């Protein structure tokens, strides 16, 4: 089956393409390479294009008969979304509408959407369940929730079937070390810490140490990128088999503070990794920890790289290999 992977040259999307190939699917990547990398896409599978270009979208669906679409092409930096909200609503919402319109016209009705834990804001209880109140606290989270609501409307209007996967902090790299995280500039905690260990930064700046958590730093649930990809594959299979309109959290159910992540990174790299304390980052909840029991029960998903030490180790091997080039 042919699957269109929008944003498939990015961090999570490129791992998704590898997972699809391993499971016998025929993925094709649509990406403008603004944050993704052509080297991350297997040869012959990249269509360079932009979701803002409706003509390019229409031609893509005319030229190929897709069985489903997987959407990873979003801006993801919480802090930037606070200072540049229109950029996020334009790309994350308006461009997704363009994609859905092209799908409707082409008669493609299965859609796997990369959502986020940011739709929950700061929950009142943990771990976070799928029926936890949705109250995003930043434009990034609001943009993702808007798309979820649009998907519900399309389900009612023209029969779209979607899987909305709300995942927590993606981390790690493919065990082959061929692909991994490569944002420019980097905004995610673990790769920034590892850049310090590689001598590419002098220190790691912790954004706030006065949160209402045991050590004062934000707590997050880290999930390996390959585990994310396997969950997406199970959701895709369920859609292709007729299941409708799924919403799932994706996480490991265990939270780690920034200082705890630093400790593991020091153990893995053998580097002291000096720290500076900076101001809080706008829009950051103190704690986000998932319950993924629903997808485990309904689709049989289970993480293969649940241990933080393993997650960091795969990322470390990837970043070392890139630094050696």
Comma- or semicolon-separated keywords:
10 helices; 4-stranded mixed sheet; alpha/beta; single chain; Rossmann fold; 325 residues; UDP-galactose 4-epimerase, domain 1; 18% strand
Structural notes for this entry:
Strand 1, helix 1 and strand 2 form a beta-alpha-beta unit. Helices cover 40% and strands 18% of the residues. A seven-stranded parallel sheet has the order 3-2-1-4-5-6-10, sandwiched between helices. Strands 7, 9, 11 and 13 form a four-stranded mixed sheet that branches. Strands 8-12 form a two-stranded parallel ribbon. Helix 1 crosses helix 7. The protein folds into two domains: 195 residues, NAD(P)-binding Rossmann-like Domain (Rossmann fold, 3-Layer(aba) Sandwich); 103 residues, UDP-galactose 4-epimerase, domain 1 (Alpha-Beta Complex). The mean pLDDT is 95. It is built from ten helices and 13 strands. The chain is globular, with a radius of gyration of 19 Å. The chain is α/β, with parallel strands linked by helices and 325 residues long.
Q: Helical content, roughly?
A: 40-55%
The number of strands is: 13
User: Biggest sheet, open or closed, and with what strands and sense?
Assistant: 7 strands, parallel
Which series of helices and strands comes N to C?
EHEEHEHHEHEEHEEHEEHEEHH
Rg (CA only): 19 Å
Alpha-carbon distance between the termini? 36 Å
At the fold tier of CATH, the topology name of the largest domain is Rossmann fold
Low-confidence stretches: none
The assigned CATH architecture of the largest domain is 3-Layer(aba) Sandwich
CATH-level-4 superfamily name of the largest domain: NAD(P)-binding Rossmann-like Domain
Largest beta sheet: what is the strand line-up?
3-2-1-4-5-6-10
Structurally, the number of domains stands at 2
- What fraction of residues sit in β-strands? 15-25%
Give the CATH level 1 class of the largest domain.
Alpha Beta
| Spatial shape | globular
